[in-house]
Amino acid sequence: MARSLPKYPLIDYERLHEHQFAALQQLIKRVYGQSGFYRDKLKTAGLKPEDIQTLADFAHIPFTVKQELREHPIEYMQAAEEEEIVRIHASSGTTGKPTIIPYTKNDVDAFTDMMARCLSFAGVNRSDRVQITPGYGLWTAGIGFQSGTERIGAMAIPMGPGNTEKQLEMMLDLKASVIIGTASYGLFLAEEIARRNLRDKVSLRAGVFGSERWGEKMRQRISSILNIDTFDIYGLTEIYGPGIGIDCHHHCGIHYWSDYVYFEIIDPDTGEVLPVGEKGELVITTLTKEGLPLLRYRTRDITRLLPEACSCGSPYPMIDRILGRSDEAFKVKGVLVFPGQIDAALKGTPGASSEYQVIVTRQDGKDCILLRVEGEPEADPDETAAACRQNIKRVIGILADVEVVPQRSLPRSERKTKRVFDQRNRG
């Protein structure tokens, strides 16, 4: 039986990676000569820059993990002279000690360029007024979005996080057309706008949300309440910050900036590089970063390289939206479950809203999973619960108890929303 042709042309990843390889070789030479950390790391692995002649050779370079960035002083890690470092950022520290990252002027310029590129993909232009709700200070997001906004020539409204009353006041007074924040806060603001009957008074037309994995149901809910298009922006502080990729108006994957970063997908258990299209852990190498370049950094984010070009016509390749983190997955009844699979089950469930909690317990020696999900106001709770149970079985392969609760009854967050509660290890 003949295979059907793909809807859009396949991306020539072999050619792309060959084009990136020259930058990879230059990077390896630079970090070997200027970073004590990477020189020692490569020597321990028995590798010198001249040993890396092919991408197969590159795959022998040891991975870099977050714990290494936390353990060593930046003077040992960085690959630039002290006088070249113009800025310091740090991760939020939600999973441990914050990670300190130094930036040179060229790093800041590259970060700004990528942010501006992301905002342009979301349709932001000089006539827009962009309300920026992520944090400033050590976190990359606030100042990064502001720099990208200003690079485009749009007006930045640098609100920072929280203070919803002031957020709504400025949104109305300044007629903000674009809102930026975490998806959780985007939903929180949308629901507040609806509750206060302000939908006809706000001027929003687009939203850019990131810093956490969020599903299609949440996208649909935010978009429908505010009547805006929403975009999923991707990034990590360790790499640059948010802005190394974003989805376009077609929302079929996240375009990543292959002139700045090299992406690999690996088996999270074996470390083996997986073929294009196979799901695994994303590993990132920075091609041009100077302050703290990273070789084969394990993100713990689960996704895949998408084989097809996007219908938008962009030359930039795509990854799938993040399914979850390898260290966030939980095993129930012998099955490994990612939060993104819950989102996929909810997406196909009529009557289910976007907000949910997963409670995992152990009773009589057996794993039990309860999904508490908010129902749409007009939906029948019993029918929604039954459909949700079927979809969880179809998507994940396990039986789960489902409790449908009223909309807005689950907690809301101005930052990231915690959704999984594993109570099996409690004393």
Automatic annotation (TrEMBL):
Q: Which GO terms describe its molecular function?
A: nucleotide binding; phenylacetate-CoA ligase activity
This entry's Enzyme Commission designation comes to 6.2.1.30
Q: Name any one Pfam family assigned in the record.
A: AMP-binding
| Superkingdom of the organism of origin | Bacteria
Q: Name one GO biological process term.
A: phenylacetate catabolic process
Keyword Transferase part of the UniProt annotation: no
**AMP-dependent synthetase/ligase domain span:** 55-285
- What pathway or pathways are given for this protein in its record? Aromatic compound metabolism; phenylacetate degradation
* InterPro entries in the cross-refs: Adenylate-forming_Reductase, AMP-bd_C_sf, AMP-dep_Lig_C, AMP-dep_synth/lig_dom, ANL_N_sf, PA_CoA_ligase
The reactions it catalyses are: 2-phenylacetate + ATP + CoA = phenylacetyl-CoA + AMP + diphosphate
User: Which UniProt keyword terms apply here?
Assistant: Ligase, Nucleotide-binding, Phosphopantetheine, Phosphoprotein
What's this chain's function?
Catalyzes the activation of phenylacetic acid (PA) to phenylacetyl-CoA (PA-CoA).
List, alphabetically, the PANTHER family matched.
Answer: ENZYME, PUTATIVE (JCVI)-RELATED, PHENYLACETATE-COENZYME A LIGASE
How it assembles, according to the record, is: Monomer.
Family to which the UniProt record says this protein belongs: Belongs to the phenylacetyl-CoA ligase family.
| Record protein name field | Phenylacetate-coenzyme A ligase
Which organism is this protein's natural source? Syntrophaceticus schinkii
Q: What is the lineage of its organism?
A: Bacteria, Bacillati, Bacillota, Clostridia, Thermoanaerobacterales
